[in-house]
Design goal:
The protein has helices at 18-21, 43-54; strands at 4-10, 32-33, 39-40, 58-64, 68-76. By secondary structure, it is an alpha+beta fold. It has a single domain (4-76), classed as Heat Shock Protein 90, CATH 3.30.565.10. It is elongated and about 55 Å long.
Length: 96
């Protein structure tokens, strides 16, 4: 998409079973365990989806059990920030 920033995070973990993929962005009542037996309830994905949508973007994922997962967020670039002055104009803004 033109005017969109895509940020993708991939892993080569255990993947997400098909029956769980439909509810991946909702808070689960039962904890689940990751590849290294880390415990989670899915709150991180719920927050990522909420924050992304509040910025006018969307989130998507692809996961194959036994192969890992890939999550991408898409954020609009156009119209969010005012154009920064260029160094040539003499009005350069110092960046930290």
């Amino acid at each position: 998409m033109s005017g969109t920033c895509r940020i993708t995070v991939s892993d080569s973990g255990q993947g997400i079973p098909g029956e769980q993929q439909e509810h991946i962005f909702s808070i689960k009542a039962e904890p689940s365990f990751g590849t290294n037996n880390e415990r989670g309830v899915g709150l991180g994905l719920v927050l990522c989806k909420e924050f992304t949508e509040r910025q006018g973007g969307h989130i998507a994922f692809n996961s194959n059990p036994g192969e890992g997962s890939q999550f991408s967020i898409f954020l609009p670039l156009v119209g969010i920030y005012p154009k920064m002055p260029s160094a040539e104009s003499g009005n350069a803004v110092a960046q930290a």
